[in-house]
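lol ok so funny story. i was supposed to be doing the assay writeup but got distracted and ended up predicting the structure for this chain instead. priorities right. anyway since i did it might as well share w the group, maybe its usefull for someone
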Amino acid sequence: MAAPRGVLCAGMQLWMGTHPRGDAKILDNRVSQKTLGQWIAENQDCLGSKVKDTFNGKLPFLFKVLSVETALSIQAHPNKELAEKLHLQAPQHYSDANHKPEMAIALTSFQGLCGFRPIEEIVTFLTKVPEFHFLIGDNAATQLKQSLNRDSQAVASALQSCFSHLMKSEKKVVVEQLNLLVKRISQQVAAGNNVEDVCGGLLLQLHRQYPGDIGCFAIYFLNLLTLKPGEAMFLEANVPHAYLSGDCVECMACSDNTVRAGLTPKFIDVPTLCEMLSYTPSPSKDRLFPPTRSQEDPYLSIYDPPVPDFTVMKMEVPGSVPEYEVVALDSASILLMVQGTVTASSPTAQGAIPLQRGGVLFMGANESVSLKLTVPEDLLVFRACCLL
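and the output, tada:
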């Protein structure tokens, strides 16, 4: 049991894990190693036997806290095969050869774009937003309308054609059309008209943050989700998404591979993104990923995505419970304190560790930890682990 410190990036990300771009520092001065990656390399059994063998002696997940004030890029994550290829071709942009499925669990009201909208919604925007229609072009727009009553392959082909037309538009033309749209919506807002039917408020917000950016038009393709605290979305490989605002905990395979196409000053790879995406429309409610409640522990909820790399557990313990046991698992875990003040102790630890909001604790495999409340307020703790 040790208290690592994450890496704070650009004022909005706290990384907890062993990725080379953000190997967590160990704050416990009784531990000789300086980073979590170094400690795990020298204490392989802490991973758990299955995890150690399956993931070649590496911690398979990366745990983060995100505080999103300005929208993060329109992006998707490659599958393993594509990740290996991209890393080989352009290691300066794709820093490792791993896939990056990820899950975001809201801490506050959290807004994001996730997956393609139902075709009917996109077709409605093509009618209501002439600037959007202009960038896509008559042929691609007609193809999309005609795909409405056809099979999923025809839908995917038409959707790819539309999205690619948009994303590959000339910068000058994008800026012209976006300025026309912003002007028109701004005038409607000034006249007191409701502009929700064309996502007017969101469009103006994104344009303020990224003037002239092609990503502003992506809102007409992608589902808009607003998660309440505790609600989650899971992003498998090739799903287009963007985080817009709010705070969340995020867990993913240990990778930093992101293919971006808009709302960012970073490297953009439009051809790769348009080629790799999963063009499968679905209603926004289908993008929610609900947890299961534990049968044994009334305070425990489990977010268990369909990938082997990670699982997240949420522990909500009322302040009236003086002590809570975090049970042993055959996997290394990272605990994150979101709310509450406790002292953590374990049979293997040299002494108790005080933890409060923002505290991070690494637990070795088959190790249990007891959390004693030192202030009688409700406890909210997240635990990232690997349940093979």
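The first helix runs from residue 36 to 42. Residues 3-11 have pLDDT under 50 and may be disordered.
back to the writeup now i swear
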